[in-house]
Amino acid sequence: MTLTAAYLGPAGTHTEEALLASAAVSVQREPCATLHDTVMAVQSGKVDRAVVPIENSIEGGVAATLDALAGEAGDVRIVAEVVHPIHHHLVARPGLALEDVATVVSMPHATAQCARFLDAKLPRAERVAATSTAEAVRIAGRSDGAVAALGSRLAAELYGCRMLAEAVEDRDDNVTRFVWLAREGDAREPAAGTPAKTSVVFWGFNDSSPGALVSVLGELSQRGINLTRIESRPQRVRLGHYMFFADLDGRAGDDHVAEALGALSDRVHTLRMLGSYPAWADRGPR
């Protein structure tokens, strides 16, 4: 059976690269215009799976993905993770030279990951946001002006652009963590003994009280659970109130993890399971 898998489009994004690099089964790829649309394609049942970026080693968490998972996509679960190296290339239509570039288009995360190169080589160039790196390359390829884009080699090939500068990211160890998503009914917990992660989001405790977050997280440390990542995002109710995204070592079904999550749930207003899935090794879904 061929699965349908949504990804941030158009064709040629780093997300599509990650999908192709990690898919363990045949997938029919469905590009989406935004990360929110990509996540919601799973929620609505339009597709079987989706691949979205969730964390970058330079820029941190991807807000649009986190907000969608904590918000409208209540029936969506993480079923796998993929750590994929990210290389950004400065590309443009044939005939445009590097010194003539007046505008650089890309997804804001990509622009931020190449800040030192842009400051050194194109300090006067206007920086314009696009919905994805591939869309940026498509814009540059169609432009009659002095427009370049930051994007993947795949996108440059697809949209008739040539390289002006290769691998211009600020760090050569730039990687992004992507996750595969499925509806809750299609999610399967990893087998016992498999290296695994569990991801949750929680909010609604006395977070204005000194030590409140430490006290809440103590439910994990008291049970010997390793917290591999925690990140806050505004809860969008009042200033100073946050939701917390956390990744834990272990399966949700492991006794000590289940006990800790139960205790954590008793301390907060809302605890939402985002997924329990194999820790990244070298394979994808699902």
Description:
The strands form three sheets. Strands 1, 2, 3, 4, 5 and 11 form a six-stranded mixed β-sheet that branches. Strands 8-7-9-6-10 form a five-stranded mixed β-sheet. Strands 13-14-12-15 form a four-stranded antiparallel β-sheet, with helices on both faces. The longest helix is centred in the C-terminal third of the chain and has 13 residues, at 255-267. The protein is built from nine helices and 15 strands. It is an alpha/beta fold. The protein is globular, with a radius of gyration of 20 Å.
User: What is the overall shape?
Assistant: globular
Distance between the termini: 13 Å
Question: Roughly how much helix do the residues carry, as a percent range?
Answer: 25-40%
Mean pLDDT across all amino acids: 90
Report the portion of residues in β strands. Answer: 25-35%
Task: Compute the number of strand runs.
Answer: 15
**Assembly state:** single chain
Unreliable sequence segments: 282-286
Please outline the major beta sheet.
6 strands, mixed
Number of helices: 9
Order of helices and strands: EHEHEEHEEEHHEHEHEEEHEEHE
Secondary structure class reads alpha/beta
Tell me the Rg in angstroms: 20 Å
